[in-house]
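Q: Structure tokens for this one, please.
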Amino acid sequence: MQILKENLTIIIVTIKSQNIIDDCLKSIDPDIKKIIVENSSDQKFIDSLKAKYRNIECYLTGKNLGMGSGNNFGIKKSKTRYVMILNPDTILRSNTLSQIFTISKNLEFAILSPLSDNKDYPNYKINKELSNDKSKEALFEVDQIDGYSMILDTEQFNDNFFDEKIFMYLENDDLCLRVKKNKKKIYIYNKSLISHLGAKAVDGKYSDELEFSRNWHWNWSKFYYRKKHYGFIKAFTFGFLIFFKSIFKSLYFFILNNKFKSKMYYCRASGFINAASNKSSWFRPKLD
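A: Here is the predicted structure, written as tokens:
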């Protein structure tokens, strides 16, 4: 089997992404099917996309589902064997996908991705003992791929894609670890390149709310991920020191009347304690 325009759907989960998504969509071959999953009720936004682009389906979820659930929503709406998960703050090169099409012929994989064009921020993780040897090859196997660009062969997953308990952060690590445990392949192809702007997927005017959300969910997701794969004791041991420091810093900045930093560290501690108490990933940034 080979990835082709006809059997590929690109899935992009958005929320308040009006300022960034056009560059992403313009970089995609218009003949390729695209599904936009907007995590809100913003009908005007999706109407504007449908008016500007062809081969595009847009869906409103009505609420902020997060990245994993949003991607699962898009995968279920797709009708092709292969889906490409993209963040709205990514840009493809003119030959990004043609290179992928070529290398995918007769290639058995669960996840495949282009390589980040920023050498300082590689979009994969690999066993350190093997990294020097493997990364010199054009196509090389890795342990994890960043979630902003992932091509999935849906037939390799038995409808078990992203863990919907994770609102954001580490949902891609969890997926990759499950793939590796099932003895399936994850590849990077370094002749296919992609640009990732990083932390630009949501309008910058919400920067404070996003920072609170990042701190809360990063610590919730780290605990949940470690507990899921390595047990409660390891998750608690790794996270407790950060929790303790976060409580101290939140009080310190509260005394200094620095409300932003006080709340940021409070969110960091709250994410940990909620995960440790087996509470759901409930925190949502205020984006209205």
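A few notes: The longest strand covers residues 186-196. The mean pLDDT is 93.
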